[in-house]
Amino acid sequence: MLWIYTITYGGGIVSGDSVACDVTVGDGATAVLTTQSSTKVYKSVGSKCSQQKMEASIGKDALLVVIPDPVTCFSTAKYSQIQNFIVVPESSLLLVDWITSGRHERGEKWAFSHFKSTNHILLQGNETLFLDTTSLEHGIHGSISERLQDYQVIAMIVLLGPKLKLIQSQIQEDVKKLMSQQLRLPSISTGCSSESGSSYWLPKPSFLASCSTFGPKGSGVVIRVASMTTESVYTFLQDQLASLEPLLGAAPYL
């Protein structure tokens, strides 16, 4: 069991920085890759983009857990991240990838120029199991802030492999229950109806989550989250990943 904390000078990534990381988890080993705090991406200088790239290989009966704090991009920042994971059928991977809207205390809300994060999981032999890209930038359809409205955090959690089967089942059940409660239509006595009485006003949920499967026989699960607060995402991650403590020696995000 090995916990690895990634550290950058000054606690952030400067415009034009390019950071590369190679990780190999040997057969039967377990490794946790995390951070000490949010990854700050400083303001862009001209057209310079800050970049991070990780290449990870996960062996047979091995587990890699990637549980960073969120990325926080400052106003005008440009950031691109690529993470490639090479696995075998007996590998296990937990990946959390998330971003906040920026520095709230300075009034910044999705004020960065560009954010792109690509996560690619390949079965040894270059067969793609999972490929996902999140791209946020201002465009003809409005600013990022206009499109995301009140939501301050977006997150993705990926669970793959035999060592995470139990937590996969549990988190799918928990998300289903959580969203059925959040999206339940109000009763006539508590809802706000129109003059015709034919429809009800439903408050915008402060926390949204969805689950889907991928890979052979649904061997992987991906959870997508949008939330109005960073704290609620931390709480969700703490609750859903707490059962990993025996595997990792400590519970994630505590």
UniProtKB/TrEMBL annotation:
Keywords: Chaperone. It holds the Pfam family UreD. The keyword Chaperone applies. This is Urease accessory protein D. It comes from Sesamum calycinum. Belongs to the UreD family. GO terms for molecular function: nickel cation binding. It comes from the Eukaryota.
